[in-house]
Amino acid sequence: xxxxxxxxxxxxxxxxxxxxxxxxxxxxxxxxxxxxxxxxxxxxxxxxxxxxxxxxxxxxxxxxxxxxxxxxxxxxxxxxxxxxxxxxxxxxxxxxxxxxxxxxxxxxxxxxxxxxxxxxxxxxxxxxxxxxxxxxxxxxxxxxxxxxxxxxxxxxxxxxxxxxxxxxxxxxxxxxxxxxxxxxxxxxxxxxxxxxxxxxxxxxxxxxxxxxxxxxxxxxxxxxxxxxxxxxxxxxxxxxxxxx
Length: 244
What we know:
Structural class: mainly alpha
Oligomer: single chain
Mean pLDDT: 82
Distance between the termini: 22 Å
Radius of gyration: 17 Å
Number of domains: 1
Number of strands: 0
């Protein structure tokens, strides 16, 4: 089942820039894996795909991730450190789901999108702080990062490059902290999953991404956000417990 999750989520991430953490984390939690174990399994695979995407998308040019490094990354580190030390259960699923559903809805309205872009530009630091905290506590800040990236850029390749670069920064920090707190073996033991994710990207990820137009990419990303929000709501209410 873990390999199935890795393959499916790696395929999604190969196209949209997010997937392994966004879908993989709640999937593994629903399967009974502790949050820390989910991190150790998913992060090497996610970082591998992000690095491959960054190399293949180099024609997009450089994207400015300095705000992410300054405002989101430190709060992501604080959130992860607290989670590893105190074993806190932070239930942000409904908040993130609501934001994603709203973000998916406004993508169909140009006027609303423009107003939201202006709002995010005025409160960029607060948005990045929220992204960092959500990602540090839950490992599922990718959806919010996608929203932020789509507000900064309009072309699909630059949106994905922004997401990918942000993910590289987050994953590098998270893996470093896991090694510091739990040792190298906790992460290195999951190198096989990273290899599987790389194969998925090299075989089909680049092909599908290049065939998708900017419009289709935009619509598909909105659909992905909606599905992701549904998955978070599903996890929050733990629908499995409603049935004997």
